[in-house]
Amino acid sequence: MKLTYRSESLQFLKPATTSKGAYLTRELYLLELQLADGRCYRAECAPLPHLSCDDMAALPAALDDWCRHPERIAADAFEIETEQSRFPALAFALESLRRQWLSGIPGLLWDNAFTRGEACIPINGLVWMDDAEAMLAAAMEKAAMGFRCIKFKVGALDFDAECRLLETVRATYGPERLELRVDANGAFRSDEVDEKLRSLSRFHLHSIEQPLSPPDTEGLERLCRESPLPIALDESLIGLNPFGPDAARIQRMAPAYLVLKPGLLGGFARSAAWANLANGHFRGWWATSALESNIGLSAIAQWCGNYPVQQHQGLGTGRLFHTNYTSPLRLEGEELWFDGPANS
């Protein structure tokens, strides 16, 4: 058993813009676990600048340590608690390798209806930030493709322009035909958020993600109680431990939904704990990719396949980059299918 890693840089087809700025490249570490019989399991460790809580300076040393002791991936006592806390992206990669080692099939993390090609995962159509005209065109194109749920990034354009955009889409597609979600990425100020949420509620939105930044816990807790729109927490979960007091704090805040990014939350075990909390106390959850390559995206989709999916998932399609790794995922309209190792 040999574990190696190397850094990779993926180039975006166009800047991936949010209210926090634009990404031009996606930097990641590609991990490869090679077995004596020739099998090779791959995973990605891809912390996201300005969003991940990974200890970036210490991450290469942590990777080197695992490469010196790759047998820990196959140990009966698979321990990654330190990585989950200090290096969430590494924990995600290690769990991905562990799941492949358990399955014995490169690229296959779970055996479920999704990976057997018996079921699909519905995903939302994501409209990236651009000028209002381009965003409207993208939304209409996705609706014409068959998407029943469209998500808009908001908070970077003039707010009136964003409202006019949503009004135009809603005038064409009513809520019975098209579910609309918006994601503010914490862009709204506390002195304006109430007025903006009232304005947005006119468009019969499904939810708004992270209207205030994570440090404003009191403001977010108040909005979860009083907002005319259902609140989904996303960035607020990053760096928290769902097995301790952090879970009680989120339960007390009582959002409508949780948005789960396994690559930023410390992997699948922690994401599953958040999912269980949401299923037991809130309206539910959905998973979202965090600009992963096709390797990480496939891992997250396979994890979603373990659940009876009730919400449209926020999974990308791997079409953001000039070049990418081979993908087992296939998109038909809004339906994500798996054509990977389990079908070969």
Descriptive notes:
The protein is of the alpha/beta class. It folds into two domains: 2-103, Enolase-like, domain 1 (2-Layer Sandwich), CATH 3.30.390.10; 121-343, TIM Barrel (Alpha-Beta Barrel). The chain has helices at residues 59-68, 81-86, 88-103, 132-145, 159-172, 193-200, 217-226, 245-253, 262-265, 268-281, 294-304; strands at 2-18, 21-34, 40-45, 121-122, 125-127, 149-153, 179-183, 207-209, 231-233, 257-260, 284-287, 329-332, 335-338. The radius of gyration is 20 Å and the shape is globular.
Kindly list the characteristics that best describe this protein.
single chain; 344 residues; alpha/beta; Enolase-like, domain 1; TIM Barrel; 7-stranded parallel β-sheet; 3-stranded antiparallel β-sheet; 11 helices; 13 strands; globular
Could you give the topology of this structure?
Elements: E1 2-18, E2 21-34, E3 40-45, H1 59-68, H2 81-86, H3 88-103, E4 121-122, E5 125-127, H4 132-145, E6 149-153, H5 159-172, E7 179-183, H6 193-200, E8 207-209, H7 217-226, E9 231-233, H8 245-253, E10 257-260, H9 262-265, H10 268-281, E11 284-287, H11 294-304, E12 329-332, E13 335-338
Parallel strand pairs: 5-6, 6-7, 7-8, 8-9, 9-10, 10-11
Antiparallel strand pairs: 1-2, 2-3, 4-13, 12-13
Helix pairs in contact: 4-5
